[in-house]
Amino acid sequence: MSSAQTATSTLAAAAAPTSLPAPPGAWRIARARAALELLLYVRAREALVFSFLYPTVMLLIFGSVLGDQTVPGGVTYVDYFTAGIAATGIILNTFQQVGIRIAHEREAGELARLQALGTPPISYLAGKGIQVLVTTCAQLAVLVVVARLVFDVPLPADTAHWLTLAWVAVLGTLAGTVLGFAVSLVPRSGKNADTIIAPMALVLQFFSGVFFVFSDLPGWMRIVASVFPLKWLTQGMRSVFLPEAAARAEVAGSWEHGRTALVLGVWVVAGLYVCARRFRWRRPA
């Protein structure tokens, strides 16, 4: 080969476009989003006070005032309330916080920028979900420790009860997260998200046997509550923290684990369907 041909080949090779690295996959983007979401969560003081620490603060208040009273089922109010406030913490950390946060991010144009960067919706959803799962586990751990040390609330009795705590918490977290995505579409403006979403969660707390014994609520209220996941999440938590004999005080006379799993699972599927069909990066005009 002549020197001219060699030079031409060298120039052609230099001019040829270099191969670009493959774009990151959806799971890698989700992990990066999860790390960022956790960092933002820790830095947001209002989230720590009104979401992460809310169950523990409420337990300390209600347990100190009403803890020694006995409720149907032969258990103390603080034992009964621990189960309910554990479920409420999950709903507030998922449904309420996720819904409000996404509405604000959409309003501020943050979601539009993520879309412009090519972020897959599933990566954004998974990133939020991982952050919520981590913070929910930490929140439950703090609540259980405080309940045990301050009010001598019994820990789950055996491995079966710990496993029940795990699947109830995971299903409740999944349901609350996807429903938070869905409800973020309700406010017409991010500025109104707090005033629309927070009252929904508050009303469900009163309907679902968190602050009051569920069997003592009016019949119509129990029927309405049975449609929504918080009632079943709360009942599942009672089956973890209360003795087996307390199940007789439930409306059905049992913990209804099968129905609890079914209802929470249906809400997970329904929330995913709404997210897949209706999720928007931008606020509707």
TrEMBL record:
<keyword id="KW-1133">Transmembrane helix</keyword>
<dbReference type="GO" id="GO:0140359">
    <property type="term" value="F:ABC-type transporter activity"/>
</dbReference>
<dbReference type="InterPro" id="IPR051784">
    <property type="entry name" value="Nod_factor_ABC_transporter"/>
</dbReference>
<feature type="transmembrane region" description="Helical">
    <location>
        <begin position="47"/>
        <end position="65"/>
    </location>
</feature>
<feature type="transmembrane region" description="Helical">
    <location>
        <begin position="195"/>
        <end position="214"/>
    </location>
</feature>
<dbReference type="GO" id="GO:0043190">
    <property type="term" value="C:ATP-binding cassette (ABC) transporter complex"/>
</dbReference>
<feature type="transmembrane region" description="Helical">
    <location>
        <begin position="163"/>
        <end position="183"/>
    </location>
</feature>
<keyword id="KW-0812">Transmembrane</keyword>
<feature type="transmembrane region" description="Helical">
    <location>
        <begin position="258"/>
        <end position="276"/>
    </location>
</feature>
<dbReference type="InterPro" id="IPR013525">
    <property type="entry name" value="ABC2_TM"/>
</dbReference>
<dbReference type="GO" id="GO:0046677">
    <property type="term" value="P:response to antibiotic"/>
</dbReference>
<feature type="transmembrane region" description="Helical">
    <location>
        <begin position="132"/>
        <end position="151"/>
    </location>
</feature>
<keyword id="KW-0046">Antibiotic resistance</keyword>
<feature type="transmembrane region" description="Helical">
    <location>
        <begin position="77"/>
        <end position="95"/>
    </location>
</feature>
<dbReference type="InterPro" id="IPR047817">
    <property type="entry name" value="ABC2_TM_bact-type"/>
</dbReference>
<dbReference type="InterPro" id="IPR000412">
    <property type="entry name" value="ABC_2_transport"/>
</dbReference>
<dbReference type="Pfam" id="PF12698">
    <property type="entry name" value="ABC2_membrane_3"/>
</dbReference>
<feature type="domain" description="ABC transmembrane type-2">
    <location>
        <begin position="46"/>
        <end position="282"/>
    </location>
</feature>
<protein>
    <submittedName>
        <fullName>ABC-2 type transporter</fullName>
    </submittedName>
</protein>
<keyword id="KW-0472">Membrane</keyword>
